[in-house]
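R.M. (postdoc): so does anyone remember the format we settled on? I'll just put the structure tokens first.
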């Protein structure tokens, strides 16, 4: 059974928000999470439930959702029950919660950790990132390389185009790295074909989930893109 634990600095502010919520705001947060449409993006969840949580900014609510999902993931990987985890967090010296108030905070935390979006989001992220390498970003670097004749004092006689695809990823140890792949025009067209096929398969499977009455836990069209 875990005792008092250290809370990462990235989560302290979020849990401080939870600690300071009024009873009405906490009730709104709980009800919002109980009825919200599932999404993998905390920002999307926050946008849908923020109106139920008083005057809190959507960004603050999103940080709280991230903290809850992060804690749930840590709890699952450590095989700690929700009740014991909530008690350990509430008594952490990093949160400076007076002892008479710790039980109330633990109850709040336990209630939120048991909400359907937090539970399913934690499981979905765990399954979705259970790979040796997980994609972070991509960038294509394009070079124009001149071709000179025997005499380099004269202007180039031609040029070739080269493309380099840079893929950034995070590995199973949580480290960020990248690698580079050279591409020509035919390679780019091949990639476009493969990605278009993947997009079509995604649409087909999303429709299948809808027909089966299952929730799709992934980015939706309503959330827009990051570009």
């Amino acid at each position: 059974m875990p005792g008092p634990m250290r809370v990462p600095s990235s989560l302290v502010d979020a849990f401080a928000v939870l600690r300071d919520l009024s009873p009405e705001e906490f009730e709104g947060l709980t009800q919002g999470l109980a009825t919200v449409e599932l999404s993998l993006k905390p920002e999307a969840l926050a946008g849908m439930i923020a109106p139920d949580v008083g005057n809190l900014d959507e960004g603050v609510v999103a940080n709280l959702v991230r903290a809850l999902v992060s804690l749930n993931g840590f709890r699952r990987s450590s095989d700690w029950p929700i009740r014991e985890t909530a008690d350990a967090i509430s008594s952490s010296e990093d949160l400076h919660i007076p002892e008479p108030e710790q039980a109330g905070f633990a109850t709040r935390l336990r209630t939120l950790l048991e909400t359907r979006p937090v539970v399913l989001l934690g499981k979905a992220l765990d399954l979705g990132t259970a790979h040796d390498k997980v994609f972070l970003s991509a960038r294509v670097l394009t070079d124009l390389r001149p071709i000179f004749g025997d005499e380099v004092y004269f202007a180039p006689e031609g040029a070739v185009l080269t493309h380099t695809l840079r893929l950034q990823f995070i590995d199973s140890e949580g480290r960020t790295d990248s690698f580079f792949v050279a591409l020509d025009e035919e390679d780019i067209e091949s990639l476009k074909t493969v990605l278009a096929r993947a997009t079509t398969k995604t649409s087909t499977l999303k429709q299948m989930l809808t027909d089966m009455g299952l929730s799709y836990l992934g980015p939706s069209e309503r959330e827009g893109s990051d570009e």
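R.M.: ...and that's the designed sequence above, right after the tokens. Also worth knowing: Residues 139 and 166 are 5 Å apart (CA to CA). Strands lie at 133-147, 158-171, 176-183.
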